[in-house]
Design goal:
Layout lengths: L1 E3 L5 H13 L3 E3 H4 L3 E2 L4 E7 L7 H6 L4 E2 L4 E8 L6 H11 L6 E6 L17 H5 L1 H12 L4 E3 L5 H6 L2 H9 L3 E3 L9 H5 L5 E3 L5 E3 L8 H5 L5 E3 L17
Parallel strand pairs: 1-2, 1-4, 3-5, 4-6, 6-7, 7-8
Antiparallel strand pairs: 9-12, 10-11
Helix pairs in contact: 1-6
This protein binds flavin mononucleotide (FMN).
The site of flavin mononucleotide has 27 residues, from helix 1 and strand 6.
């Protein structure tokens, strides 16, 4: 079973690629908390790096997963460039549950947060080609149930960014708002949000709840560019989704 958390499809695409090779099933991490996974002999966790660390939603979900200590457990983190402490954090939480991670790797992909900084994630599509051979190696390793930890040492940036007050501030700056003049109530954002934090209100306009995990999936998916961060409009040409998840 491969459990993924994904805002713009990078981690979903990686999960599907591994599942195609191994015959495993892919499931959103948010759904897995209610499942008995204790009979699964292979558990994969695939998620993005946020601010040199693990997305808070993933960190909150991992303790709720029922994983057998005998399972082959692997982690693949997708990132724009650096995974920081995102693998260490989850390894530590799993160790506290008596679960050992057999294999970890990171894979670079287009940085979906670039849109918030006025850059275009679509300018980074070259990463999909450049790192495709690495992806193949990761898939082969997992298929053959190899062991290994392929990521850097924990760093100060991840530790500092993980200080709860700072983390709230950093990720809070990604919090989206809905421009009601542009929203047509299509509901796409309600489906894209990996934690169900967006609903349609009585006036059929999207409403963002208080649990936003900063995945920016809604920002990228809105066909009307009605979802904004920091009150800035979202240019259509900078909206990104992994090509296989479009
Ligand atoms: C709030 C936020 C913070 C991010 N921080 C980092 C980071 O610290 N390092 C990095 O390499 N990429 C960072 N990224 C980029 C994502 O990790 C990367 O684009 C990932 O592949 C997105 O996966 P997804 O499409 O499955 O959501 C960040 C993205 C977001 C939305």
């Amino acid at each position: 079973m491969i459990l993924y958390f994904s805002g713009t499809g990078n981690s979903l695409a990686v999960s599907r690629k591994i599942a195609d090779a191994t015959g495993d099933t892919v499931m959103p991490m948010a759904h897995a908390a209610d499942h008995d996974l204790s009979k699964e002999d292979c558990i994969g966790l695939v998620y993005p790096c946020y601010d040199f660390n693990t997305p808070p939603a993933v960190r909150d979900l991992i303790p709720r997963l029922h994983i057998s200590p005998d399972a082959y457990v692997f982690i693949v983190v997708t990132c724009g460039a650096q995974t920081g402490n995102s693998i260490w954090t989850v390894r530590r939480i799993l160790r506290q549950k008596g679960v050992r991670v057999a294999y970890c790797h990171k894979i670079r992909m287009p940085d979906n947060s670039a849109i918030v900084f006025g850059r275009n994630p679509n300018d980074q599509l070259w990463k999909l080609e450049r790192f495709a051979p690495r992806m193949e190696r990761i898939v082969d390793d997992i298929k053959k149930r190899r062991h290994g930890s392929h990521f850097g040492a924990p760093g100060l940036a991840g530790w500092i960014a993980g200080i709860p007050a700072l983390e709230r501030k950093l990720l809070g700056s990604f919090r989206p708002s809905v421009n009601p003049r542009l929203c047509i109530g299509c509901g796409i954002c309600t489906k894209v949000c990996p934690i169900g934090n967006i609903v349609l209100g009585d006036d059929k306009k999207a409403v963002v709840g208080n649990s936003c995990t900063a995945c920016v999936g809604c920002l990228h998916a809105c066909p009307q560019q009605a979802i904004e961060v920091g009150g800035k409009p979202t240019p259509k040409e900078r909206q990104y989704r992994h090509p296989s998840a479009r």
